Request: fold
Amino acid sequence: MRKIFLFLTLQFAVGQLFTLAQQLEMKLGPDMDYSSYTSFKSFLGATDNFIYTWGSKKNDIYIYEYDKSDLKLQYKVLVKKNINSTTVYTGYEFMGDDLLLFYEGFDKKKSQNTLSVRTLTSNGQLSNPEIIARSDSDKKGRGGFYQTISPNQKNLALYIVPPPSEQEKESSKFSMAVYDTDYQLKWESNYELPYTNENFFLTKFYVSDEGEVFAFAKVSNVKAVLASNYRENWILLKLSANGEYKLIDLEVFEDDFSKYRLRLNTPKGKFSVYAMAEASYKYDNQTGIFMAIADMKTFELEHKVLLEFDEATRRSLTEEDRIDGKPQEFFDFKPISIQSRHDSSGIVIAIEKQYTQSSDMGNSVTSNEYFTRDIIIMAVSNSGRLKSTYIIPKDQQAEGDEYNKSSSLLMLDKSDNIHVFFNDEPENQNFKPGRGKEPAKMKDPAKSALVHYTIESATGEGKYQILRTNSKNSLPEVRNFRPIYDHNQILIIIEQGKKMKLGTLQL
Reply:
């Protein structure tokens, strides 16, 4: 029987599996035409009524739209990656049920960069490109744009990046513009931050429903003579019209988090940033969690916490056994997801504890096959207290084919119950252990299953559930999945035998 191990403030206790009342709804569409989906790559996302996937072939992009109600294909549209030799596809956003496709170009006559948009409507109509923004450039057309859209999909924000020549002179100067749904400019402002002798780079940004922009940026003293004096600091920004801004210096340096997973979030009017370092005995001082939360209206810092793992926690996450001249085993952890609780009381982090098998070949190490040994869920309060840790065993995890079977996904439902999804071979009937230098393998990769592990937030009680389709003898192998957090929904592509299906999982 599988168990879940729960330790509170690093005190270990064991709890039995318990069936939760909440059920997961799985819906699958009709069989896909396998031959016509060989170019399938990934999900673009979903709107209220439609699901979009895409695939590529040479210089072309194929976009597929499916109706959410029956998961049937509505259309397949061919979109050229390049409009012309100087205008190329760079990204997309959703606005209602329409898909906005963005292209960056270069106007040689005016030495300007351009941003164009094409609208792909829900009935498969693709508009002609329309230039919505321009920015100064150098003769090589360097510089460009980054875009994002507000939650209510009524504000489009553009971060306008100057060319490298200008960045080298004064990297703390940049522009931000906000447009409405008709691409009419609401406001545009130039900003100059007090970092004239340092390198400034705006890493991520967010536009609110009110049209204000919030951003996370890094500042580094690139002119430091000694490497030991080099550092990168983190700051939060609130950007408004007329060049006005507010700045919060977090005084946390990236050399403390050289390997991190960063997430921006805005739960209930709060602007927050979370980061987590990867653990390794090579970087003992870089293992931990950083979180900062500011009020969006006042832009005052409410919480700033750096939670460094103690030795007991690090050793529970990282193990190492190295024997000269023989196969080696190495355990490490990799942060894969950070989610804010709906009640704004803290965050939940998902980690994959990885097992590596490699062999020592004289002065060099030949690696490596990575397998996920456990999935670890950490709940952290806003005050920085490690409230609880859940370890979900994956003892049967093994190598399948070219698809990544160790991928896992974390979601929180509206009651902040924790849901973890991953591919696994659950009953150890299909598992062939590795010998010597050989990694563990699946006897039949098609028999791996999608597992739904639930943890009730209030009690810590959990359940391991294999998700099956109507066929009792056939388990679905998940080829790809993508969370739609606003809808508590997961999009999946599964394969059974030689048939592929599009599906949804609804919490």
Remarks:
- The chain has two helices and 38 strands.
- Residues 36-106+116-133 form a domain with the Thrombin, subunit H fold (CATH 2.40.10).
